[in-house]
Amino acid sequence: SMPEVYELLGDVYTRSVDDPKPEIMGMLFEGVNLFPRRLALVYRTTLLCLRLKEFKGAAALIEHGLRTSPAGVAQTRFTELKTQLPPGAFEEAQAKFKAMSGPKAPPAKS
After folding, report:
1. N or C: which end of the chain has fewer CB atoms below 10 A?
2. How many whole angstroms separate alpha carbon 91 and alpha carbon 52?
3. Where are the alpha helices (DSSP H) in 1-110?
4. Quick one: which of 68, 40, 33 has its CA closest to 48?
């Protein structure tokens, strides 16, 4: 599973007039999960989510992109994508991330 394969897939579909089918989006999300630091892949997958009006997925990817991208062009690009989300979608993704990565409760004593 080479990251380039996923990046190529994302590139082809962001340039295509055809919307990617759900299985293609599934493959792109698989690529993002396997290679979370490949920001071009994260960015293209976000563009496709926005095109498909898959705002939950887009918001989660933007949240990830902003958290992991270096300052400068990459941050700016993800910030620009954030403006395309419906109101509240990004905050929801942030809250979800915080809930997942927040301090874990100690196991209950039986």
Report:
1. C
2. 20
3. 3-15, 22-34, 39-51, 55-68, 73-82, 89-101
4. 40
Backbone angles phi, psi at 85, to 5 degrees: -80, 150
**Closest of 45, 21, 49 to residue 33, by C-alpha:** 45
pLDDT digits (tens, 9 = 90+) for 67-100: 999 999 999 999 999 999 999 999 998 888 888 7
CA dihedral 51, 57, 62, 68 (to 10 degrees): -130
pLDDT tens, position by position, 36-67: 999 999 999 999 999 999 999 999 999 999 99
Q: With contact defined as beta carbons under 8 Å apart, do 34 and 3 qualify?
A: yes
Q: How far is it, in rounded angstroms, from Cα 39 to Cα 32?
A: 9
The identity of residue 93, as a single letter, is: A
